[in-house]
């Protein structure tokens, strides 16, 4: 294995200036090269930082030297206080980073050839042990790790304790239950961040400028987990309360351009009665994004994504209450087969029909439904009874039969039973209509239910 250590000193005196390193920024950098990123903090020293396992990523970046070169170049934006080293053990890389970090790219690449001898020459001060114990070692004439490593294990354990031996074993790759575990860091399941504005204002352009910084933080957090979200909760805090805004997307995404566009349209419709002081954003739910394989051929799914983006912009500019999404339900009754709602319909893939509570309704599967006749999208709000006698299917008459009947018998277990025979016909005005005969009524009346466009 090959580990990279990114360590730096953190002041323990609250009066002193805090370190300018941002642990989250370093994690974002490290997570770009490996999914295994572990946090380490010494108990008896002021060193903190990240350990990154990059052996599994060598092939992806073109080899060990190519990856280490890119890693070194990506850390140049940080100040010289960041100490980098690499070794085939995590603790060994941590020791090198504290005492003998790489001064340039050549030193960093040369560490690929380091072995145990390079660790034996390190001073005992790199061990995360009690200061009194290190004083005892110096009094005994031990100045290098090699001096401790050559001691008999039983005698070392008896005189200096199990924790110090575990620190040594972990540096040289030996199994020890008391060694510090290198557990991969897991980002939080939810995201929440608040930002105080440097001014109090109700100007939308200035508020949007600072809100975009929070959007970048949300999208970076999503990219780390390879997740996307469909909704962001915003709060614009002023002296007398807060204004709440919910940004919604028809599809889960981590694209910052998409969220910036939606935020711009939503803020354009808002009015603040007081100056805004703080901004807060929350992402409570996220989902794993599918892997996308790019192709030089046209992508059939691109049309769906463009349609979802168009719907998102319409909802942001016109309001969620003015845009309705149509979806089909597995219900043969025409008036129940189409559902209109303000958000895209989310249904489990393995459920085709939702049971009515406290009633025994059979589950309906789309795969078992017979192919029905063509149905019109323009249905009357209430079926219109036909006046006069039943339709006479004849050429030149008021009604001309085109197809039918189609029997729809459903809902005998609920309050809306249905038993009808549907017909496609042409009326005297040459319009294509949809008629049915209600077989549940005694006189079996006829109704006009819709028109074909």
TrEMBL record:
Highest taxon in the source lineage: Bacteria
Keyword field contains DNA damage: yes
Keywords assigned: DNA damage
Keyword DNA damage: yes
PANTHER family for this protein: BLR3025 PROTEIN, BLR3025 PROTEIN-RELATED
Protein name: DNA polymerase Y family protein
Lineage, uppermost ranks: Bacteria, Pseudomonadati, Pseudomonadota, Betaproteobacteria, Burkholderiales
